[in-house]
Amino acid sequence: MNSRTLRATAAAALLASVLTACAGSGADDERAAAAAPGFPHTVTNCGTEVTFDAPPERIVLLTSSAVPYLAELGLLDRVVARAGAYPDAYYDQATQDALDAIPLLTDELDTSGHLQISKETVLAQRPDLVLGQVPNLERATLASAGIPLLEQPALCPEGVTDLSFEDVAEQMTAYAAVFGIPDTGERAAAAVRDRVAALTSGAAVADAAERRTAAVLYPTVGGGTIYAYGTRSMAHPQLEAAGLENVFGDVDERVFEVSREELIGRNPDVLVLLHSDGDADAVEDAITSLNGAQAITAVARGEVLVQLFNFTEPPTPLSIDGLSAIVERFGR
After folding, report:
1. 208-330 architecture in CATH?
2. How far apart are CA 42 and CA 34, in angstroms?
């Protein structure tokens, strides 16, 4: 099976979505017109078959990664509860207003930064779909109660090889199929492709020998581990689409630890620093204050962009927003 097929399978396994402001009315029309056609519908998600007898009506969100899809599909009205963090910076006002109206079950994290929520708390919401998996509430636990779970394919244990922005479009159509609105999904996928094309259709990408190099990192504020992103992450196609060469493009992993010495040795011209919350200046300082950091071209020249994690990972419409920010900051 080739990587394209793997991606298509993984995307269909997930759920996908859409991307136009008018998608909501289209979704309403489709839902009113036909609820039964296309069901039962089975997807393979993280290697597990998940079957839906009808479009889900009561969703519980355990992570924020599905929000851009649901918002563009006009499906946030089906979310009955959410847990975790939903930073305002990710969303337009209409989406933020919709999220604010959804009860927040908890946003408390354990010492390792993982959301902690009980099975009983989720079951009390009577969901017919849970989106996102957390360590103490996995698929098997929910399946024992008859509740299906879907995770972003890129966040499955096996991950997805050869990621691209096409994965965003494919996940959109997969989401739309799960919710019984395939036409809306096709329109949204086309909008994704058009937007990416617009962002990458400027000046021709320079020859590889002339392209600036870049690294996408997740630093630990206050000192500690530095994580870098390789070819199995969305950071890799994001840099390529921006006309930049990933200095860790020879690493066939999603994310991995990198030493200060290796980072200095790879010497990227550009740095994109990711974080989940908090002060962006502190995130930048976590790298620029490293001993010897001034030997890194990106640090010496101030070519550093700090942005929230979901603007890169996992592949969603927010990854396109992240690409836009990278292109705007560093050109193409």
Report:
1. 3-Layer(aba) Sandwich (3.40)
2. 18
Residues of the chain with CATH 3.40.50.1980: 3-197, 208-330
**In sequence order, what E strands does the chain have?**
41-45, 48-52, 59-61, 79-82, 129-131, 149-150, 213-219, 226-229, 245-246, 255-258, 270-275, 304-308
Pick from 255, 249, 184: which is nearest to 225 by CA? 255
Cis geometry, peptide bond prior to residue 103 (ω within 30 degrees of 0): no
177-233 residue pLDDT tens: 999 999 999 999 999 999 999 999 864 444 555 789 999 999 999 888 999 999 999
Q: What's the distance, CA 298 to chain centroid?
A: 26
Burial of 57 (0-12, 13-18, 19+ CB in 10 A): middle
| β-bridge mates for residue 109, sequence order | 115
Q: Which numeric CATH code is attached to 3-197? A: 3.40.50.1980
